[in-house]
Design brief:
The chain is mainly β and 207 residues long. It contains one helix and 13 strands, in the order βββββββββββββα. The strands form two sheets. It has a seven-stranded antiparallel β-sheet, with no helix packed on it. A six-stranded antiparallel β-sheet has the order 1-2-5-12-7-8, with no helix packed on it.
Length: 207
């Protein structure tokens, strides 16, 4: 889903899935169609009060999720595809301020920030910063909820620019390729127009 394609003038109740399966549209709930609860500067802004969304016709979720987002509230749920909502259940993206981002509800999974494996950055350090979250977890479970838990509750205040989900658990190399293909506007380039990478070959992106 690319939220930059929409505006508040013709506010939609569903967001079209740009992938092959058009049946999996994103159903929006409680958005007011304003800058604080709607579309603003290329993002879908969730107000942290009662805004949330559900991916239609999907009852198993994804094994890899990409979200380009600027989270603005801690102790809230950005994404949830768990059946029962248990802590040990895979998986959800929970903005737990003092834990490694975003591993608090990702048991057995891997988390990348801007394409780089995250083992040290805390969720609180990413608040109010635009970045790309990638969760890889070789399990699928339930209906995907975005901007809240599947109750729904724990509503997130955030600016979300893009969302991609894959039924497969992608490798590190595949994660890099997805970022290069779908998030190229966030990549840092040198003076010759080539992508900048770190010492391990990971693409460097604007955060």
């Amino acid at each position: 889903y690319d939220f930059s394609l929409y505006n508040n003038t013709d506010f939609p109740t569903t967001i079209e899935n740009l992938a092959t399966d058009k049946s999996k549209a994103l159903q929006l709930f409680n958005f007011a169609g304003t800058e604080e609860s709607g579309f603003f500067e290329g993002a879908l802004v969730s107000d942290g009060v009662d805004d949330y969304a559900i991916i239609q016709n999907d009852k198993e979720g994804f094994r890899t999720v990409f979200m380009q987002v600027n989270p603005m509230s801690a102790e809230t749920m950005l994404y949830d595809q768990r059946i029962h909502g248990f802590i040990e259940e895979a998986f959800a993206i929970y903005l737990y301020a003092n834990s490694i981002a975003y591993n608090a509800r990702n048991p057995g999974g891997i988390t990348y920030i801007n394409g780089i494996l995250n083992e040290s950055i805390l969720s609180r350090d990413l608040l109010n910063n635009k970045h790309i979250i990638t969760i890889v977890n070789d399990s699928s479970s339930y209906i995907p909820y975005i901007f809240s838990s599947n109750t729904p509750s724990l509503f997130t205040k955030a600016k979300t620019f893009k969302f991609l989900g894959f039924k497969e658990a992608l490798t590190a190399e595949q994660v890099q390729e997805v970022i290069k293909q779908y998030f190229s506007e966030s990549q840092l380039l040198d003076s010759q127009g080539y992508e900048l990478t770190d010492s391990e070959g990971n693409y460097l992106t604007v955060s």
